[in-house]
Amino acid sequence: MITVGLYHFLVVSALLFSFGLYAVMTRRNAIGVLLGVELILNSANLNFVAFARYGIFSMDGQLFALFVIILAAAEAAIALAIVLNIFNNFRSINVDEADSLRY
After folding, report:
1. Which of 10, 12, 20, 29 could covalently link to 36 via disulfide, CB atoms 3.0 to 4.6 Å apart?
2. How far apart are the C-alpha atoms of 32 and 30, rounded to whole Å?
3. Domain-embedded: residue 46
4. What is the DSSP string of 21-46?
5. 46-49 long-range CB contacts below 8 Å, 24 or more apart?
6. Which residue range is the domain that position 78 belongs to?
7. Any domain includes 98
């Protein structure tokens, strides 16, 4: 019988962070970049909860994870508004094509 420990959570979190970083660095589409940022934030949440469970932090990890979830929801709403504005101005959501900040 395998028991799930802190090491397993850290490995999954590192994989999530790696996939998120890869998505942010390689995607040209703004939606793909936003999904990568969400993966990075979820890996941080997993670390917070895992260290709260297996460490000495009691409920602090869950509170930080809840705070990150609230920030992620606000970030998604603001980022989607920015993406819609970029689409209205440039007729594309590729971040390479929207490098100038003209009005």
Report:
1. 20
2. 5
3. yes
4. HHHHHH--BHHHHHHHHHHHHHHHHH
5. 46/9, 46/12, 46/13, 46/16, 47/9, 47/10, 47/13, 49/9
6. 6-90
7. no
Q: For the segment 42-82, what is each residue's pLDDT rounded down to a tens digit?
A: 999 998 888 888 877 677 788 888 888 898 889 889 988 88
Q: Distances from the Cα of 72 to the Cαs of 16, 68, 102, in angstroms?
A: 16, 6, 28
CATH number for the domain that contains residue 86 = 1.10.287.3510
Question: Could you tell me if residue 58 is left (phi over 0), alpha (psi between -120 and 50 degrees) or otherwise beta?
Answer: left
Phi/psi at 78 (nearest 5 deg)? -70, -40
Q: Tally Cβ neighbours within 10 Å of residue 20.
A: 21
Q: Flag whether 59 is in a domain.
A: yes
Based on the structure, what is the number of domains in the chain? 1
Whether 96 maps to a domain, the answer reads no
pTM: 0.81
